[in-house]
Automatic annotation (TrEMBL):
This is Heavy metal-responsive transcriptional regulator. InterPro entries: DNA-bd_dom_put_sf, Tscrpt_reg_MerR_DNA-bd. SUPFAM superfamilies: Putative DNA-binding domain. It holds the Pfam family MerR-DNA-bind. Residues 2-59 form the Transcription regulator MerR DNA binding domain.
Amino acid sequence: MRAAQSADLTLAEVAPVLGLRDAGQTPCSHLMLVLEQKLTGVRSRQRELADLAGELEQLVETARTLDPANCGPAGICHIITVE
């Protein structure tokens, strides 16, 4: 069970594996699919986080060059504006 936890498998993902085993079947192919899906999800999330990091880096760079005295009445600041 510790390996399942380190792979970030949920109880809902582990339960069918245990059910197959309890039924006398080998759950290896099912588990392989679950792990491949988990890996695909992790890689997708990594790409999303990399994109978010890029956006945040741009905002930080922009924020460093802005003068708060130039904020208009419609804006909270140059980065966050009220629409």
